[in-house]
Amino acid sequence: MVVWLFTATVISAGDPLHVKPTESLSNLRERLANDTSITEVIFEKGVYSGGLHVSGPKATDFSQRSLVIRAADGAKVVFDGARVVEQFQPHEKLPGVFHLDYEHRGGEYPKLWEPGTRMRYRLVADSEAVARFPATYTVEGQRLLFHTSDGQTPRRGDVLMSAEDCGIFINRPYVTVRGIAFQNYLARDKYSTGIDLRVDQLHQGHRQLQRIQGTGEALRQPGRMARVLRSGPAYHLCGPAVSRHRRSRLPSGPEESQPRGRRGR
After folding, report:
1. What is the pTM of this model?
2. Which of 127-131, 163-167, 231-235 is predicted with the least confidence, judged by mean pLDDT?
3. Which of 98, 147, 197, 236 is the most buried (most CB within 10 A)?
4. Proportion of the chain in helix, strand, coil states, percent, rounded to 5
5. φ, ψ for residue 176 (rounded to 5)?
6. Which of 85-89, 108-112, 156-160, 169-173 has the lowest mean pLDDT?
């Protein structure tokens, strides 16, 4: 699922910081955390893998240091939360099954899918079920085992795995995000999202959690809740109130494979 987020335009002063797809989002995070002179970040055309954490120095009056994060004029900018499944080997005993090193550190298991065939893999009980049913996977010990939908060895990019929880994590007020698309942020069923907003003084002076997904425009400012200005599917959580809950998913397409074996964890 590709999610476009637009917000109202904010005019800011200062020289813009231009970012290319070859540059590290981690380095950008450090620059934003320490340099309040940056008032505009412009992403050039391309796909940016991973996620960006946006914060700033403590004791800063951000009302005087607003920040705009946007796509370059006319550029298609996509943040992608998946990683390519690679460095795998054929299973030593099970034909059609491949494995890669994987350490599960608790929480949800990753999601796997084939973007080309629009096929989502099912998590099953064990390696025998993976061998029997196409488009399945499981985790055994320090390995992740999977079976492609056609049983053939996948080329690079044929199989993707969920990796990131959110595209942009905003932990400072007076931030505008405009013209950026988000896709494949699926690490956690309930909480994964394109943009995660966590800032003080959103509503009656209390810390609130805001997540907005879908086609629409949103404006985020301290002292009030974000507003959805255009209709569209949204997951909008603010304190105890929840409205229009729709979680991020892959685009509609071929049905998921339906193995009849015992399902996994």
Report:
1. 0.72
2. 231-235
3. 147
4. 5, 40, 55
5. -120, 130
6. 169-173
Q: How far is CA 1 from CA 46, 108, 190, 195, 215, in A?
A: 17, 20, 15, 14, 11
Distances from the Cα of 180 to the Cαs of 56, 115, 131, 177, in angstroms?
A: 21, 20, 40, 7
Q: In sequence order, what are the beta bridge partners of 209?
A: 198
R_g of the chain computed on alpha carbons: 20
Task: Find out whether 67 and 32 touch, Cβ atoms under 8 Å.
Answer: yes
The distance in angstroms from the start CA to the end CA of the chain is 25
Token pair recorded at residue 196:
């995660």
**Torsion angles phi and psi, residue 129, rounded to 5:** -70, -35
Give the whole-angstrom CA distance, residue 105 versus residue 88.
20
Residue 200 — φ and ψ, nearest 5°? -65, 160
Task: Compute the distance between CA of residue 126 and CA of residue 105 in angstroms, rounded to an integer.
Answer: 18
Residue-wise pLDDT tens digits, 183-194? 999 999 888 999
pLDDT per residue as tens digits for the range 199-243: 654 432 223 333 433 333 333 333 333 332 222 222 222 222 222
Pairs from 73-78 (Cβ < 8 Å, separation ≥ 24): 75/43, 75/44, 75/45, 75/179, 76/45, 76/181, 77/43, 77/44, 77/45, 77/46, 77/48, 77/179, 77/180, 77/181, 78/2, 78/46, 78/47, 78/48, 78/180, 78/181, 78/182, 78/183
Report the distance separating Cα 40 and Cα 68, nearest Å.
5
